[in-house]
Write a structure and sequence with these properties.
MutS, DNA mismatch repair protein, domain I; single chain; globular; disordered N terminus; binds magnesium ion; four-stranded antiparallel β-sheet; disordered C terminus; about 375 residues; DNA polymerase, domain 1; 4 domains; alpha+beta; Alpha-Beta Plaits; 12 strands; five-stranded mixed β-sheet
């Protein structure tokens, strides 16, 4: 299965796409904070004997997948979402550690509390990643770069872990910037430099451009941001549908998507195109697992509960079906979501034709009861 970009309903390839609209542009200061090799770093923090060694969080079992890899493991080409068997082959000394999601969740709450000292405009993407709109911030600080520095220093002091940050005038560029100086670094992209930064960037690195879209762009002769910028809006809509306006905008360093701190989102979804059409249940179930983890992680990070699960299936001929199930109360654990997906997926096999894409979305969302402050938790 290919790695698709995250798609949380509000992301470029999601359903709630922002249209390209220059009029709604206003100067903003966005910080994207991203913990470095988060799960693996937590394990190395808590188990000193793992420090300096190649660590993969996940199950070494035949069907297992790497959830996170330490930087030592990444040097061998190990990365998240890689089958554990492949990871072990690339790095024979790789040490597998079982994930401890309760610990990751507690750390996530600690970093969230630090963000909240600066702005209420926080949009978490997962347990370890968030956009902050600091245009107007609670400390009345002028310089977003200084805010990012302070936040990273506080994260280090509070959790013992490092974070990287990207600072820019929109979400797309802030996200791209946070990758530039990883680990434990930060990078700013100013309005003056944004367009040139995008022009030199290969489209495969773009947030919102997954492997399937990358391939399609390459076939159309679009390799870099500069190539993308040469295309007309009509051309991009013709070839990329509702993502066309988004691509048109980001090719110019323009992205008007707002940081959404609200928890009134109607649905949360992720989808992924298989590298080869799938005809049997096992690879389909395997392929859907990262999507389950992605949407569940998003709900966890945002204290959202969900009652309705929708499975989307797109076939090789591009025909599409959806199957939904609503449970009486918000699902308490990821295992419940996995069960529902199994129930929705199994009856579709054997399929009439190959399956090209699977999607998972959650709706009938509700806010979970507020959790205890992290400091309180530690005091106990
Ligand atoms: Mg991260």
């Amino acid at each position: 299965m290919r790695h698709a970009p995250p798609c949380h309903g509000h992301e470029p390839d999601g359903s709630q796409i922002m249209t390209y609209d220059q009029d709604s542009d206003r100067p903003r200061k966005i910080v994207h904070v991203d913990m470095d090799a988060f799960y693996a770093s937590v394990e190395q923090r808590d188990n000193p004997e793992l420090r300096g060694l190649p660590v993969a969080v996940g199950s070494p079992a035949a069907r297992g997948v790497v959830a996170a890899a330490s930087y030592e493991a990444r040097a061998f080409g190990v990365h998240s979402a890689m089958p554990s068997v492949t990871a072990q082959r690339k790095c024979p000394d790789l040490i597998f550690v079982r994930p401890r999601f309760d610990v990751y969740k507690a750390v996530s709450l600690q970093i969230r509390a630090i963000f909240a000292e600066y702005t209420p405009m926080i949009e978490p993407l997962s347990l370890d990643e968030a956009y902050l709109d600091v245009t107007e911030n609670l400390k009345s600080m002028e310089i977003a770069t200084e805010i990012a520095e302070e936040i990273r220093a506080k994260i280090k002091a509070t959790t013992g872990l490092t974070a990287s940050a990207g600072i820019s005038y929109n979400k797309f560029l802030a996200k791209m910037a946070s990758d530039q100086k990883k680990p434990d670094g930060q990078f700013v992209i100013t309005p003056k430099h944004g367009p040139a930064f995008v022009e030199q960037l290969p489209v495969k690195k773009f947030h919102g451009v997954g492997p399937a879209t990358t391939e399609k762009m390459h076939r159309l002769g679009i390799e870099t941001g500069a190539d993308l910028k040469e295309q007309t809006l009509e051309f991009l809509i013709q070839h990329f549908g509702k993502s066309g306006p988004y691509f048109y905008g980001i090719a110019r360093g323009i992205d008007n998507r707002q940081v959404k701190p609200d928890r009134v989102r109607k649905s949360v979804g992720a989808e992924d195109t298989f590298s080869q059409d799938v005809h049997s249940y096992d690879p389909a179930r395997e392929g859907v697992q990262p999507l389950i983890e992605k949407v569940w992680g998003y709900c966890e990070a945002n204290e959202i509960g969900a009652k309705t699960v929708t499975l989307k299936v797109k076939y090789a001929d591009f025909s599409q079906i959806t199957r939904s199930k609503t449970v009486p109360a918000a699902m308490p654990a990821i295992a419940d979501l996995e069960d529902v997906i199994g129930l929705l997926l199994a009856p579709l096999f054997p399929p009439r034709k190959g399956i090209r894409l699977l999607g998972v979305s959650l709706s009938s969302l509700e806010q979970r009861a507020p959790v205890a402050e992290p400091q309180l938790r530690l005091a106990f």
